[in-house]
Every structure is written in C-alpha cells, then in structure tokens.
Amino acid sequence: MKSSGFLCGIVLCLELLYLVPAEPQPEPLQCSLIAGASALPVLQRTGDVKLGGLFSLHDMVLEADLSFTSKPVSTHCSRFNLRTYRWMQTMLFAIDEINRNDHLLPNITLGYKIYDSCSASFHALRASMELMGGVEEGWERSCRGMVPVVIGDGSSTLSVAVARFLGVFHVPQVSYFSSSSSLSNKAEFPSFLRTIPSDMFQVNALVQLIQHFGWTWVGVVVGDDTYLLEGAQIFSEEVQKVSVCMALHEIIPRNHTAGAMASIVARIRSSGSRVVLVFALEHDTVALFDEVLQQGLIGVQWLTSEAWTTAFVLSTPSRFLPILQGSLGFAIRRLVHLPGLQEFLLHLNPLNPDTPKDPFLPIFWEEVFGCSLQGAQGGSVPGFKPLCTGSEKLENVRNIFSDVSQLRVTYNVYKAVYAVAHALQAIKNCEKGRGTFPLQNCPDTDSLQPWQLLQYLKHVEFFNLYGDEIKFDKNGDPAAVYDLLNWQLGANGQVEFVTVGTYDESLGTKKLHIQEEDIIWNRNQTTIPVSVCSNSCPPGTRKAHRPHFPVCCFDCVVYATECVRCLPEFWSNEGRTACNHKEVDFLSYGDIMGITLLTVALLGSLCTATVILIFACHCATPIVRANNSELSFLLLFSLALCFLCSLTFIGRPSEWSCMLRHTAFGITFVLCISCVLGKTLVVLMAFRATLPGTNSIKWFRPPQQRAIITLCTLAQVVICSVWLAVAPPTPRRLTTHESDLAILVCDEGSALCFSLVLGYIGLLASLCLLLAFLARKLPDNFNEARLITCSMLIFCAVWVAFVPAYISSPGKYSTATEVFAILASSYGLLACLFLPKCYIILLRPEKNTRTHLMAKSVPDNS
C-alpha cells in the first residue's frame, strides 16, 4: 500500500517506546518487532483483504514486576472467557460464509488477523500496533501485514484506547460490544463505528421503564470503570428530570474487597429502595450478588444493564435464582437462529489435523474439558491436569460457548463482518467516473487505503438475510432497538430470558412497549412492586419536605385546624380535603319526571293528530263545517304545536333551547287563544245577525277572522323579538352551600318581557272567557259558547295556579311546573272544544245533520 512505509515508521517508533531495546544488530532495520521482544499470539489466514480482530479472550492480565532491574518478562493472561471465544469464532464463521458466497465478493478472498486483548488497554494497544505494522509471512523489508479495518474491541475502555490509535491513521474500527456514549464523538473518534447502540439510548430506555411503572425511589450500583461511571452519571441526570430520586449511588471497587461489598449491600438495605439498577460488568455483578446472598437481602427488584442482562455466569448457577428471579433489563436484539453456526463451533478440535492453526484453541480445549494437551500446539504443562484422551467432543458439553440461544453480541460480530463485506462490494462495483472521491474516481482494490474503506463503510446500507437493516448514522451508531427481558424460572429449573417488551428509538413518542401481563416480578410476584421514599399523604394532611432529603421524601402533616369554605359552585369531597365541582342537575329525558312529561306531551300530540284525521275524514259534515272549519283546523294545528313546544323545556338547557322554549311557548299559545277568540266572536255575532236590522256578521267573515288571528299573533311575535334582542333567556346554574348539586335552568333574562308574554296570553284568554260567558245562553244547538267558556275556565285556572307554583318551586321543578301548565291547558282546550264533536261524529252520527244543528233549544219551564 502507498502509505505503508510511513505507517511502518510511526509504528516502529511507538513500539520502541513500548518495548525494551535489544542489543544492536548488524542487520539493516526491517519492519518487524524489536529483536528480543516476543510477538503476541495471533490467529491469522491470508487473503486478498485481511480483517483485523480484537477480542478479550482472557478476563485479566497478571501484573509483572516492573522494577526494570532486569529484562521484563512477558505478560501472562488468565481466566479464559468462553463467551468471547464464541464471538471470535463467529467472525471466522462469517468470513468463511462470505468467501463461499459467489455473489457478494466474487474473486476476492477475505483473510483475518486476530489478537487477544486480554481485557487490558495496554494489551489491546499493542495488538493494534501489530495489526498496523506486523510482518507478513514470506515478505521481507516491507510492512504488508497492515490491515485496512479492525473488528473490535468488546469493552468500551479498550475500544477508546484502540480508537485513539487507529484514528490517527484513519483505519476504520467496527466494535460489536462497546456502547459508551463518548465513542459517538466523531471529533475525537473519527474512524470508529459499531453495531451495538450507544449507552445513551439504553439510558433513555431505562428512564422510560422506570417512569412506566411509577418508581420514584431508585438506587444505582455501578462498576468502577470510566465508561460505566459515565453511563451511570447520565442515567442519574436523566432520571431526575422526570421527578425520580436517587436512593443511593454506590461504586463496586475493582478489587472486590469483602468489606467494601458488605458496605454496599448494607446501604442498599438501609436505603429502603425496592428497585436497584446495577450498571456493571459480569465479574462485578458476581461479586455483588455473592454478598447479597450472604447477607440474605431479598425483596429487591433488580434492573440489569445491557452488559449482564443475559450473563451466563449469573443465570446458570441455581444459587442466584432466589434473588435474581424476576429481574428486568434491556438487551440488544436477538437473532433466533444463525444457520450453520452451531455446527461450525462444535466442529472445533485441536487434535484434528485438519483444524487450522489456532493458538487459542488448546487453551479453550483445556478450559472446557479440564485436561492437558501435552505437546499439542500451545498446550499447558502436564502434571496439573490429566492428559486429554482425544475422545472429548464439544457436543457432549453444555456451556456458554455452545449455547446459541441468545445470539445478541454474537450477531453483532456477524453484522460487523458483513458491513465490511458490503463496503468492499460497493468499492468493487464502483464505476469509473461515478465514484465518491475527487474527479469521481474509484478506489483501487489492489491498493486499498483504510480511509477509502472508511468512507464506504460509513455509507453502507443493506438488509441482511434475516430482515435486519444494517447502516450507521452520522455518529457511526446503528439504530437503537432493544428487547426487554424478564428472568423467569423455566420448567427445567433453569433461568429463561423471556421477552416482555421492546424499545425502538425510531418509533417517536411511543418507543417503549411492555406486555405487563407476561412479567414475573421478584420472589415470583405478579403485582408491580412499589418503590417510593414516602407514600402519598392521606386525606386531611399535606406534604412537608424533609430537610437534607430529596424531594421524593416528605412527611405528612395535618392541615390547619380552620376550614376553608368552598365556593357556591363547589362541594367538599368525602374526606373534606378538597373542593370539587358540584354535579349539574336539570330536567332531563332520563329522569322519571322528564319521561312522564315527555310521554304526556307525545300522547297529546297523538290525540290532536287523531282529531285532525277525524275532522279531515268528515270535513263535509255539518258539525265540521259549522262555525268555520278552517278555523277549527288552525286551532288543532296550534294545539299540536303547544304540545310539542313543551319538549323544548326537557333536556340540558343551552342558549338556543332557552330562547326557543319561551318564544315558542308564547307564540303558539297566542295563536291557539286567537283561534278560540275568533270562534267566540263568530258565535256571538252570528246570533246578533238574526236580530232585525242588524248586519254585523259581515265584519266577521273568514277574511276578517284571519286578520284578527294574524294581528293578535303578530303582537306576541313583536314582544318576543324585543325580548330576544334586549335580554334573551340564557342558561344559569342555581347553587347553594347546603346542596351538593348545581341546578341548571333557563334564566328569563328580562322579567318584564317574560311578564308581558304571559300577561298578553292572559289578556286574550280573559277576553275570550268574557265573550264566551256573554254567549253562553244562546239557544241554537250549534253554538259553542258553553264549551268555550268551560275550556277558558280550565285554561285560566291552570295559569292562575301556575304563577305561585312557579315562583315557589325550586330548581328544575319550576321547569316541570311550567311544562305541566302547558300540557294541562292544552288538554283542557282539546277536550272541551273537540271531544263533544268527535263523540257526535263517531257515536251519534244521527245528530250530525243541518236540521238538528239549526233547531232551537227548548227552554226549561219547570
């Protein structure tokens, strides 16, 4: 590559600072490690493009003597991690799968160069140096061992150290498990990308989870790691923004001393918090829960951070089940099945001559089977373990390496390799003149520069075979999607990670979805645990803040002894601790009274319609034609309106209904009384017309009758119009301190206008009664004076009784009184004026003749 000489010079300088200088050599300087310095174990395979890999296959490094009085010995890594070894083998599996794919990268073979970073920053940095400047086998005086991309590391701490180094050379680094939010800073880590979401999204998910269940008193226990502490600090800040208080904030020391762990558990117990988030790595959580078991701390709902949500070391031993059953936590999305992976893993065997050379495989084999591979490639010294027999098989062992039921980080490794492969495919398929570089040039795959691959890797976007979209945002982060897992006891006595919800950052406001009915809480409970510093204050008390405590902690003190009187439209609650709005009451269609009045009104309308039908069918008979049949039909029509206008008084009062009910009532009743007045005048004038020398009947013919009715009704229309213009009726609430109800009625607006409407009706009714009384003894059978007199007596009696009843009736009963008066007077008019005629028409048709109607009544001389 073009820049290999420059990079080799820089790398050699860095290694000179890191490694012990050797004795001067006569040979010229080559691109190799300093003489006398041991190279790190490496797993590699040649290829057209080599992918670097960093995996923490060991959990710790044994500290060496750094006195420098003698040549420092090589560092020694210990505690082999089976889970990380599976991740490393997944990288090999993905590369092998890509190489066998004839469509993805045809004519390009991927190789790899993988180192063990031993969970130590200096080890990871040295491995990165070797990836940048190691010597390729078969080459001299060149640095062809440099890789254009690195997959790894897992820990955020290690990835930060590696990213600072690789960023100098713009070598792309794709991490599969480093979730620190600081790595999203492109100004500091320009070439870093990852297939795991940032901790910032995990913090958002945890905050929403705590909000969802109403927990306001939460503890946090965090591992002593720079980036774990950073994540826990962000969580504390964000959770307090939503009114949640921190019960405690404890740090697990790196050396896990017994006294420190006992102190942490004691503070958890004394805090009173029933919900505690543990933001730590697996080995920290093991130390914590060992102490929790020893002290017998139960009843705590543990929230897991993504780093240990599916930790095999915690979920497998049955001793942790009593305290961790019911735990909740977020984990990166799981791939249910990766075809061929388990077979690939179980095929490993260091005693098989066909197995590729792997310096880590013997260590893995001895760890799994507890035997020694004497003389095998890299085997341990015999004497401490029995020799391996060669009959050991991985399929006969159940451990975290062969467990592919929770492919989460494993799937991230798989996606990282495929992201690089698709970036290489985009480079290979680049057409000249359509590239992304100056002059639209395309990279040369034979001399591919890391910065060129980085440009394509940033913009990679594709859907894999399992339906997941692989792409990076401007910060190099993937889409944040988590599963909410619940630790439940399975039928086989083992822990099962049951998915009870999801969190998707791309879903806008409703990012968190939880199936609460599927959750089993701590100690096998089915009810949501309560975690508050202070319970809600009972009625009659108020919150009093505790000095030197968070706002979630308060005491409940009794209110002042004096009472505060509620406003008229309010009513005190049962505990007399607050004023609530009074319930609104009115004459509704649902009340028994309302239903009764509605039924009576509709029945009256039906009776009126029946009379109209009878009169229409017998319109040619003398009894209908007598005394102006047109006037009779108009009177029946106005009576029907009187019955129907009563319906406007029932139901919730509104501005329109209040105006309609009073104006409709006033106009329809004036129309009705005007018709009765017209009939009375006709009867009276008809008798006077029989007297000699009288010609007054000409003034009361049908046109004149219509004019009288129109003028009388028009006067009421004018009164109602002025009423609506000046002070229309409006809804009003009637409240008293003694009642818990607010009565909604129609206020008349102007008492004067309301009085004029009623007074005008009364005036017409009185005039009609007077004229009917004067004509009551007319001798003709056809005169209606007595019937009109009877109807007007009923009408006047009803409305005279209405006035005091209306004034004295409270609330909605005044409305009911008005409706009753309307219906009673309407029924009186209908019965007195038309019932006798219907009787003759239907039952005594022999009297429905002109002869009978014109006959003189025989006076009683007795």
The class by helix and strand makeup works out as alpha/beta
Total domains, how many? Answer: 4
Return the average pLDDT rounded to an integer. Answer: 84
Q: Look at the structure and name the CATH superfamily of the largest domain.
A: Rhodopsin 7-helix transmembrane proteins
Regarding CATH, which class of the largest domain?
A: Mainly Alpha
Radius of gyration: 49 Å
The stretches of 5 or more residues where confidence is low (pLDDT under 50) are 1-30, 32-36, 135-143, 376-380, 856-862
Total DSSP E strands: 25
Task: Walk me through the topology.
Blueprint: H1 4-18, E1 42-45, E2 49-55, E3 58-62, E4 76-80, H2 82-99, E5 110-116, H3 121-133, E6 149-151, H4 156-168, E7 173-175, E8 192-194, H5 199-212, E9 217-223, H6 226-240, E10 245-252, H7 258-271, E11 275-279, H8 282-295, E12 301-304, H9 312-315, H10 321-324, E13 328-332, H11 341-346, H12 361-369, H13 409-428, H14 450-458, E14 461-463, E15 469-471, E16 481-489, E17 495-504, E18 512-514, E19 541-545, E20 554-558, E21 570-572, E22 579-581, E23 583-585, H15 592-617, H16 622-625, H17 629-645, H18 655-688, H19 702-726, E24 730-734, E25 741-747, H20 751-774, H21 785-808, H22 812-843, H23 850-854
Parallel strand pairs: 2-5, 2-6, 6-7, 7-8, 9-10, 9-11, 11-12, 12-13, 23-25
Antiparallel strand pairs: 1-5, 3-4, 13-16, 14-15, 16-17, 17-18, 19-20, 21-22, 24-25
